[in-house]
């Protein structure tokens, strides 16, 4: 059994946003185990409050925390989920001190939803930019007029302090954290189990998880790649993408060669094949279904391009992957009495 790669401690404020807690924990739960058994193998999570006091969420659901505010060395990341802003002044000073000590020990400290306000009150946002939800912008400006902020990101992490606006951004941040500590396959499994249905396989969220993002300097090519990734599920044309960017097809060809050392058509094919591989190893779709899903005219064309990239057919890769997964599961099950 692997050592737990990611340990997260949640500090709950009175009237905290329940979705921030459940969204984060569900991401951890799906990444933590094989299948859907919820065992804390790869990830673990602990809820905390001062003196282990019962905490009511903003929607009225009551949580009984696992423990008091225990030593931050038990965790890789400390998460503070803030209260309704009407109760921001009621956050105990012991919580502020706990967050400061955790940060001093080199732990990643993350503020979810109004947790960014708690971090600011604890003095941890000086010289940093808070990532806020627009709904909280005016309050943050009034309460912390000298601190900087942004509305342009799902989350922002600077020098071991992260701020996350809440909502679905919490899942995005949790997925990134899982990827860093447990690997991309754990993160992909988490998102797959949380968001992907048989009829919703082509959602933007799932596509983004399956693809490695690369740094692209030219903003026009960056926009082109985003369009291509969003439309990989339909047989679009390079000319139509170029037209949307105000470029000629020849201009876009030259920019792609200069920036990525490949043609637009080759890039589009590459991301379709890459996402096809992810579907192959993480879904029950047939190879024909995957070929059509990723914009190929037929299964034969998909198999030919797949073999060019990976040196084997999709069927062969899937069989080997299944054999390895079965072996790993057998070994894990044989030791299940240990956890």
Automatic annotation (TrEMBL):
It comes from the Bacteria. Pfam families: DJ-1_PfpI (PF01965), HTH_18 (PF12833). InterPro entries: Class_I_gatase-like, DJ-1/PfpI, Homeodomain-like_sf, HTH_AraC, HTH_AraC-typ_CS, INH-QAR, Tscrpt_reg_AraC-type_HTH. CDD domains: GATase1_AraC_ArgR_like. GO terms for molecular function: DNA-binding transcription factor activity; sequence-specific DNA binding. The keyword Transcription regulation applies. Residues 222-320 form the HTH araC/xylS-type domain. Keywords: DNA-binding, Transcription, Transcription regulation. The keyword Transcription applies. PANTHER family: ARAC-FAMILY TRANSCRIPTIONAL REGULATOR (PTHR43130), HTH-TYPE TRANSCRIPTIONAL REGULATOR RV1931C (PTHR43130:SF3). This is Helix-turn-helix domain-containing protein. It comes from Sneathiella litorea.
């Amino acid at each position: 059994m692997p050592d737990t790669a990611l340990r997260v401690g949640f500090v709950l404020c009175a009237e905290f946003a329940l979705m921030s807690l459940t969204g984060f924990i569900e991401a951890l739960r799906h990444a933590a185990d094989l299948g859907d058994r919820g065992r804390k193998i790869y990830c673990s999570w602990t809820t905390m409050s001062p003196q282990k006091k019962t905490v009511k969420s903003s929607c009225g659901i009551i949580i009984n925390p696992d423990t008091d505010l225990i030593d931050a060395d038990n965790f890789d990341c400390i998460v503070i989920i803030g209260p309704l802003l009407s109760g921001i002044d009621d956050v105990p000073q012991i919580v502020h001190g706990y967050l400061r000590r955790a940060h001093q020990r080199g732990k990643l400290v993350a503020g979810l939803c109004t947790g960014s306000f708690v971090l600011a009150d604890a003095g941890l946002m000086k010289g940093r930019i808070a990532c806020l939800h627009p709904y909280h912008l005016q309050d943050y400006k009034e309460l912390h007029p000298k601190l900087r902020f942004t509305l342009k990101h799902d989350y922002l992490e600077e020098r071991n302090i992260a701020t996350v606006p809440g909502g679905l951004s919490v899942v995005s941040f949790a997925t990134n954290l899982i990827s860093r500590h447990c690997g991309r396959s754990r993160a992909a499994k988490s998102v797959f189990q949380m968001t992907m249905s048989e009829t919703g396989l082509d959602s933007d969220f799932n596509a983004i998880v399956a693809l490695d993002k690369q740094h692209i300097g030219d903003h026009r090519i960056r926009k082109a790649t985003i369009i291509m990734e969003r439309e990989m599920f339909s047989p679009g044309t390079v000319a139509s993408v170029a037209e949307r960017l105000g470029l000629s097809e020849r201009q876009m060809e030259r920019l792609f060669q200069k920036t990525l050392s490949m043609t637009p058509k080759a890039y589009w094919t590459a991301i379709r094949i890459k996402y096809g591989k992810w579907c192959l190893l993480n879904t029950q779709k047939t190879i024909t279904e995957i070929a059509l899903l990723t914009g190929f005219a037929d299964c034969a064309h998909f198999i030919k391009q797949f073999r060019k990239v990976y040196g084997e057919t999709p069927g062969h890769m899937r069989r080997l992957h299944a054999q390895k997964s079965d072996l790993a599961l057998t070994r894990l099950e044989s030791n299940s009495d240990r956890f």
